[in-house]
């Protein structure tokens, strides 16, 4: 029932203090930096990196949870986008592992944690994170939607290029004959572009203060490890 009292005013929309928001952002960045720097030092300098590798799934979950927390409007549409992207990412990896048609012939190791159908559940979370970050970062460019989708796809594939040498070294996954096929990057480009077009056609707030930091942190982490361990 609408209010008829002329003195009534609706509750004010809560306003987040900018200083509190900045503190929250700096705290999240500090936590992530601690995890990634610790992981980098452990994997780069430890004689037995297995202790640090057991925390890889936890690190991915923490990163995903913080990205999700900094999404401004967690609408039903955004939740549906997130779930759909993670499921599609997981299923294409299942198809990839079982057929070798999408990315080439590969198998997953133990590092990414629990598997279903020979595929780690965390790989779906990884596809969501990369797709989401690519979508958010592409919003910084004033361009037509498809151009943004292409840019976001290149950001996703570029990060995968940095991940691959580290992944094969630390038992994330293993390629047949120990050679990373070019087919892998073509498959990633195709799937990532489809997901970016889907993201562009989905109406949710495509803004996240933490996303640029996370993307840069992951890029430096994997590029640095790949360069250092050559």
UniProtKB/TrEMBL annotation:
Keyword Transmembrane helix attached: yes
Pfam families (alphabetical): Caroten_synth
InterPro entries, per database record: CruF-like (IPR007354)
Alphabetical UniProt keywords: Membrane, Transmembrane, Transmembrane helix
Membrane-spanning intervals of the chain: 27-45, 51-70, 77-97, 117-137, 149-168, 180-198, 210-229
Protein name: Carotenoid biosynthesis protein
